Amino acid sequence: MQISVAELAQLLGGTVEGDASGLLNTVAKIEEGFSGALSFLANPKYEEFLYQTQSTAVLVSREFKSTKPYTATLIRVDDPYAAFTYLLEKFSNPAAQLSGVDAMTFVHPKAQMGEHVYLGAFSYVGDGAEVGDNCRIFPQVFIGANVKVGKNCLIYPGVKIYHDCVIGDNCIIHSGTVIGSDGFGFAPLADRSYKKIPQTGNVVIEDEVEIGSNCSIDRATMGSTYVRKGVKLDNLIQVAHNVEVGEHTVMAAQSGLAGSTKIGKYVVIGGQVAIAGHLNIADGNQFGGQTGVMGSIKEENKKWFGTPPLEVRDSLRASAVYRRLPEILKRLEDMEKELKTLKGE
Q1: E strand or H helix at 87, and its extent?
Q2: Strand 256-257 with 274-275, pairing
C-alpha cells in the first residue's frame, strides 16, 4: 500500500513539517530507515538516529525539539508510539483479509458460526460450539463441544480449546496453546499410587486477552479457571486449575501459577517466576525474573525479587552482601586466629 505523508498525517490527526507530498509504502526502524519508509521516535535514546535516518518520514511527539539538522519529514502527533502501533494494526494484518470456511474442515451440524468467519483447513468445531462474528481461525485448530468463542478473535494454527471453555471478544491465541486441559489433580492412595480426580470445570477467558504460543491453561476441578479482561500472557506459561488471573495482569515467558492461586489486577510477573498454590497476590505487585513466591502478598503495588521474595531494595542489599561472603568469611577466620593467639592457644 502506498500513501502520501499528507494523507497519513490526516489519518493520524498530525501536522507535517517538511515535504507533505512524499510517498510511503512501508515501515522501518529509525536506525535502519530508507526512502519510502515511515519510522517513529518515542524513546529519547534513539534521537541521534533521527539526524542520520534515510526514512522519508518520522513520527515524533508534538513537543519534540531537534538539536541538529535532519532530512526526514516530521509528522507530529500526540503519541508517536501509539500512532505507529495503530498503523501496524491497520495495514499489516493479513489475517483481516481471510474469509470463508475451507472445504477440508469439520463443523458439527449443531455448531453455530457467526458472520464473516474464516475457518482454515483441518480445523474442527464440535457439537454445540459457538464462534462469533469476524473470527479468524487458522488451520488445525480444535474447538471442542459447547465451546463459546466471542467476536473478532484471532486463533492461530494448532490451538486446542477443550469442551465447555469460554473465550471472550477480541482475543488472540497463538499456536500450540491448550485451553481446558485437565488440572493436575491426583489423590494419594495407601499403596503410594495416585488416583485421578475428575476435572469437571472449565476455563473462562474474558475480553481483550492475548495468549502466547505453547501455553497451558488448565480447567478447574469444579467451577472455572479465570483469565480476566485485558490479561497478556507470553509464551510457555502454565496456569493451573482454579487459578484466577486478574484484569490487565501481564506474565513473561516460562512463568507458572500453581492451583487455586488468585492474582490481582495490574500485576506484572517477570520471566520464570513461580507462584505457589492457594495464595492471594494483591493488585499492582511486580515480580522480577525467577522470583519464587511461597506466601500470599496482601500489600498492593510492591516490587519483589528473589527466593524467598524480598522487596527490590532489600533484595539488592542482600545480593551485595552475598557477593562479599567469601571476603567476609576470610576476615572472620583471620579474626578467630587472632583471638586464639591473644588467648595463648
Answers
A1: helix 80-91
A2: parallel
Q: Where are the beta strands (DSSP E) in 208-302?
A: 210-211, 216-218, 224-227, 232-233, 238-239, 244-245, 250-251, 256-257, 262-263, 268-269, 274-275, 280-281, 286-287, 292-293
**What is the enclosing helix (H) or strand (E) of 178?**
strand 178-181
Cell for 320? 551485595
Q: Which cell numbers hold the place of 254? A: 516460562
Cell for 263? 492474582
Calpha distance 40→25 (Å, rounded): 15
Take residue 272 and report the three cell numbers written for it. 520464570
Distance CA 222, CA 200 (A): 5
DSSP state of 151: T
pLDDT digit string (tens) for 315-327? 878 888 878 888 8
Catalytically active residues, by annotation: 241
Low-confidence ranges of the chain (pLDDT < 70): 1, 93-97, 345
Whether this prediction's pTM lies above 0.90 is answered by no
Domain 99-255 listed as CATH 2.160.10.10: yes
Cα separation, 31 vs 50, whole angstroms:
8
Contacts of 12 (CB under 8 A, 6+ apart): 59, 75, 77, 83, 86, 87
- Is 129:143 a contact under the CB 8 Å cutoff? yes
Q: Which residue has the cell 475480553?
A: 207
Cα 241 from Cα 249, distance rounded (Å): 18
pLDDT the model gives residue 245: 98
User: Helix or strand or coil: residue 180?
Assistant: strand
Give me 290's grid cell: 525467577
Residue 37 dihedral angles phi and psi, to the nearest 5°: -95, 150
Homologous superfamily assigned to 3-92: MurE/MurF, N-terminal domain (3.40.1390.10)
The pLDDT tens digits of the residues spanning 247-268 come to 999 999 999 999 999 999 999 9
CA distance linking residue 192 with residue 190, whole number of Å: 5
Q: Round to whole Å and give the CA distance between 157 and 171.
A: 15
